[in-house]
Design goal:
The chain is α/β, with parallel strands linked by helices and 154 residues long. It has 2 domains: 2-63, Translation initiation factor 3 (IF-3), N-terminal domain (Ubiquitin-like (UB roll), Roll); 70-152, Translation Initiation Factor IF3, CATH 3.30.110. It contains 4 helices and 8 strands, in the order E-E-H-E-E-H-E-H-E-H-E-E. The protein has helices at residues 16-26, 47-64, 81-97, 115-128, and strands at 2-6, 12-14, 29-34, 41-45, 70-75, 100-106, 133-142, 145-152. A 4-stranded mixed sheet has the order 2-1-4-3. It has a 4-stranded mixed sheet with strand order 5-6-8-7, with helices on one face. 19% of the residues are buried.
């Protein structure tokens, strides 16, 4: 026994064979919509159209999901004020657009001994963008890089 629904069809509970013949009379297919219901719900529709609608709904759902964009800005341990401000303006623009910003200080060769200087630059950077963003991940050293992630404020 199944519950049958559909356009131009009297809703009701039918035997499976009756439901199949009913669908065949309309030249359509019998599609199980809700298998967990008691009795299971079947709909008399065109199966190809049903699949098309399903794919379209999934595509719309995928399009509505938020895509997280991460922009990366690289500094050096001895970055000058002009370069710092130039990259700071880029970061502020990225944050206003809604993207996350990953700021890293790259240590080349023996410059790794200036870890404190790299951390100071990152904290100065975070302090400068406090109006439009907040720190998601504090500065931490990974190999030859010190990385910090900043997210936009809502």
């Amino acid at each position: 026994m199944v519950r049958v629904v559909g356009d131009n069809i009297q809703p009701g509970i039918y035997n499976i064979r009756e439901a199949l013949s009913l669908a065949e009379n309309f030249g359509l297919d019998l599609v199980e919509i809700s298998p967990t219901a008691n009795p299971p719900v079947c709909k008399v529709i065109d199966y190809k159209k049903f699949l098309y609608e399903l794919k379209r709904k999934q595509k719309e759902m995928k399009a509505k999901t938020a895509k997280i964009i991460i922009k990366e800005i690289r500094l050096g341990p001895n970055t000058d004020d002009h370069d710092f401000n130039f990259k700071l303006n880029h970061a502020i623009r990225f944050l206003k657009e809604g993207a996350k910003v990953k700021v890293d200080v790259y240590f080349k060769g023996r410059s790794i001994i200036y870890k404190e200087q790299g951390e100071l630059i990152l904290l100065k950077f975070a302090q400068s963008v406090v109006d439009v963003g907040k720190i998601e991940q504090m500065p931490r050293l990974e190999g030859k890089r010190m990385i910090m992630v900043i997210t936009p404020k809502k």
